[in-house]
Amino acid sequence: MAHFAVENLSISFGGIRAVTDVSFSVERNTIFSIIGPNGSGKTTIFNMISGIYKPDSGRVVLDGEKVSGLNPDRIARKGIARTFQNIQLFGNASVMDNLMLGRHIHMKTGILGGAFMIGRWTPCAREEIRHREVIEHIIDFLELQSVRDQFVANLPYGKRKLVELGRALALEPRVLLLDEPSAGMNTEEKDDLRIWIKDIQEDYRVTILLIEHDMNMVMGISDRILAINQGIPITEGTPPEVQKHPEVIAAYLGEEESDADDKEHRDLV
Fold first, then answer.
1. Partner of 109 for a Cys bridge, out of 79, 113, 217, 242, CB 3.0 to 4.6 A?
2. In angstroms, what CA-CA distances link 170 with 28, 73, 100, 268?
3. Which residues contact 183 (CB under 8 A, 6 or more apart)?
4. What is the reported pTM?
5. Residues of the chain with pLDDT under 70
6. Phi, psi of 4 (to 5 degrees)
């Protein structure tokens, strides 16, 4: 049985089919990427996996348990976390506070838990210490020490993307959905991100689903890739298999290649 599986997912909006019969399975602790032109349905698939959209048909299964149809909070509690194309952070809160918010599903004691236990640590205090230890590890891991107390709104875009990645890690997910994590980053930040994604796979033992337009990154770190176009699967396989598939090249480039397309072709192959 696969660790994570999407089985025949389909969804329509206003009578227009956005995703049609998409299926794939992902082995534990691997990186699985979904590629395709803009508007091909990639983020819609993530939205169905994370519970933002309810599929018209099909299901999502994690370790043998059906999770599609649950609300996003319950899906997060099952162990699926995600980042977004457009950053979803609290700009007027510090980096530390944003990361701590990622621990909310693991918090068990209430504000007044153990308030009358005089002379020793209360359950509330002990729990907060444990949560802060997790966050401190993430701050060190993503090299956010220098900005930990700054408001997120004051950070460069690339740093904000890292904070969102850190908040997703704070959920301690079994499956991590990364939606365009390198968007808005410069070349150096993208190089660092590639290393961090591989380190997350190895150190955190997390299964990663990736949507990413940077083909060098996709081909360099993915174990398997699914290519889709107009919501329909084209092919699935290893990076060398997918990058040479004629329908994948056609979907990205069309029948006539411009000079700009030539560069994207070189990146793809």
1. 113
2. 19, 14, 7, 33
3. 85, 161, 213
4. 0.85
5. 1, 105-127, 253-269
6. -140, 135
